[in-house]
Amino acid sequence: MKTIEVVAAVIVHDGKVLATQRGYGxxxxxxxxPGGKIEPGEQPEAALERExxxxxxxxxxxxxxxxxxxxxxxxxxxxxxxxxxSLAGPLKLLEHSDARxxxxxxxxxxxxxxxxxxxxRAIEASGAMG
Length: 130
Hints:
Blueprint: E1 3-13, E2 16-22, E3 31-32, E4 35-37, H1 44-56, E5 59-72, E6 77-88, E7 96-102, H2 114-126
């Protein structure tokens, strides 16, 4: 089974975390943390900065590593490194159909993609939202 190496941004602002809704592909409509594939030879932090520019037309400051999630989907194995990030300026949805700023109380109000469920649990356990 193919392994896909990705990074995801846990963007926290004013005690809320950004969730984005996939706008395409097999998992369209599912909610996730923004990010994407790591290119060969690319450092995870650099990949995350690039992916956020491509997906959200925004700049992020990549902070500490929060969690690494490994999840077996039916067609591939996902290895996702997640970093706490802060947003530097406004964002614009270029690839996602929706985005929401979720509080600790509303974290479970969206239908998270399976791999992202473990990220939400790590956020709750770590106190990453402040």
